[in-house]
Amino acid sequence: MALVKVIEVIASSEKGIESAIENAVAEVSKTVRNIDSVWLKDTKVHVKDGKVISYGVICKVSFRVD
């Protein structure tokens, strides 16, 4: 039986939501192996002077435990 663990992470990007998700996966991958999936829990944008300056995501990352 496989055991799966889920962690929650926050990431951001100036490029867009997809880039923020990719940043989250890239950072988690530095210390976590066997990532199976990422569930996008929430999104937000940061605004300054009436313009979007960055995108933020809260992700739940699931991975198999050895």
Automatic annotation (TrEMBL):
Classification via Pfam families: Dodecin
Gene3D superfamilies: Flavin-binding protein dodecin
InterPro entries from the UniProt entry: Dodecin, Dodecin-like, Dodecin-like_sf
Protein name per its UniProtKB record: Flavin-binding protein dodecin
Species in which this protein is naturally found: Algoriphagus ornithinivorans
